[in-house]
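Weekly puzzle thread! Below is a chain. First person to post its structure in token form gets bragging rights.
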Amino acid sequence: MARQEYDDEPRVIVERQRYGVGAFLAGLALGAGLALLLAPQSGAELRRSIRRGARRAREAATELAEDVRETAEEVLDETREEIEERLGRAREAVREKRRELKRAVEAGRAAAREARQTLERHLTEKRDQEEEGEATTA
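Winning reply:
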């Protein structure tokens, strides 16, 4: 069987990268900086524009961070509520199982008492019969 070489074949490599908020902000700042540097402005106007762009970027970053914080708080609150609800259901299930166990133990004790009383009654009857039998033969 012949072995084929594929070294001359073109290859496609697909990579997935996730860029977060930091990459977005860096791109925003880089784009704003390039736009300001390439715009035909005087030095004072350019510095003012750079300050304005930096302030807008800072405000956007602050707003984004606040949104992320609020979302995280909401998710945390929802998760906490779900956990508390599940714990409540688990606790109630444990309480119900304890009640069932207590009822079963009480039923077992009652059955044991009844069986003991029945056994004692049978033993007493048997003893009485034996004593009567001995009295009639004597």
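Puzzle host: Confirmed. Bonus trivia for everyone else. The chain has a mean pLDDT of 82.
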